[in-house]
């Protein structure tokens, strides 16, 4: 049953939801665990049914990371390895698409690298139109270029599609001053400005993504998707995770 709150009107009309590849697998494992994918899909479905327009940018680290070959072998060029990582995100995208559609949610999988047999090519205006029609748009293959992380791809798509906010789903409650799993005294931040993120070198997203969002005033919410209902709560504007807002 879908969880409800006192307020059922979404605060954000359009969001970019950034999911890491690790969210598609069980903790400490690799590959795709469909029970994990279905669990995320149920939360996305709840948020979509509120009337929020959702585009999902996905990583591929559960299958392959482009940087993993960097120091292993000169036989695979680094650019090639990054393209391999982009293809991994498409595999995740196909899994997420089927999981969402099994719940009755209309979707479109769009890729930055053209592969017409499995997905539509990413075209900004077309993606925006899909969102307006209430479809969940899954954005795979990063930006289509090597040496660019999916964090940066998420920031780029948030700006292109004029999202109200970029939401990064993680396995921790938000942003801390240090790794909370290693440092029990790490301080949790409920609200941050971009200046503080940069000054303290807080590990939120990669520096290019932070720079883009900072320059264009795109807020970022970092929250724990493992807590059931948090995606819906985030869309409603409930206090979850860490909100990074443009500095005043």
Automatic annotation (TrEMBL):
EC id: 2.7.4.22
Ligand binding (UMP): 60, 143-150
GO cellular component: a single term: cytoplasm
Any Pfam family the entry gives: AA_kinase
Pathway per the UniProt entry: Pyrimidine metabolism; CTP biosynthesis via de novo pathway; UDP from UMP (UMPK route): step 1/1
Enzyme class, UniProt record, top EC level: transferase
GO biological process: 'de novo' CTP biosynthetic process; UDP biosynthetic process
Primary location recorded for the protein, binned into one broad class: cytoplasm
A GO molecular function held by the record: UMP kinase activity
SUPFAM superfamilies xref list: Carbamate kinase-like (SSF53633)
Name used for this protein in its record: Uridylate kinase
């Amino acid at each position: 049953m879908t969880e409800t709150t006192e307020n059922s009107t979404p605060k954000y009309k359009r969001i970019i939801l950034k999911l890491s590849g690790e969210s598609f697998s069980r903790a400490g494992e690799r590959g795709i665990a469909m029970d994990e994918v279905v669990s995320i899909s149920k939360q996305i479905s709840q948020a979509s049914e509120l009337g929020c327009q959702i585009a999902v940018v996905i990583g591929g680290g559960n299958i392959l990371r482009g940087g993993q070959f960097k120091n292993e072998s000169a036989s695979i060029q680094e650019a090639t390895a990054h393209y391999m990582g982009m293809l991994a995100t498409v595999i995740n995208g196909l899994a997420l698409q089927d999981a969402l559609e099994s719940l009755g949610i209309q979707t479109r999988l769009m890729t930055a690298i053209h592969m017409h047999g499995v997905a539509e090519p990413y075209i900004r205006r077309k993606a925006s139109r899909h969102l307006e029609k209430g479809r969940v748009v899954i954005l795979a293959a990063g930006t289509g270029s090597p040496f660019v992380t999916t964090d940066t791809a998420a920031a780029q798509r948030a700006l292109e599609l004029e999202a109200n906010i970029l939401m990064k789903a993680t396995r921790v409650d938000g942003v801390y001053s240090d790794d909370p799993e290693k440092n029990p005294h790490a301080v949790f931040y409920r609200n941050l400005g971009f200046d503080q993120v940069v000054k303290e070198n807080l590990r939120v997203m990669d520096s290019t993504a932070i720079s883009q969002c900072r320059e264009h005033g795109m807020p970022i919410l970092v929250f724990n998707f493992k807590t059931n209902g948090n995606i819906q709560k985030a869309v409603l504007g409930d206090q979850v995770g860490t909100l990074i807002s443009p500095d005043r």
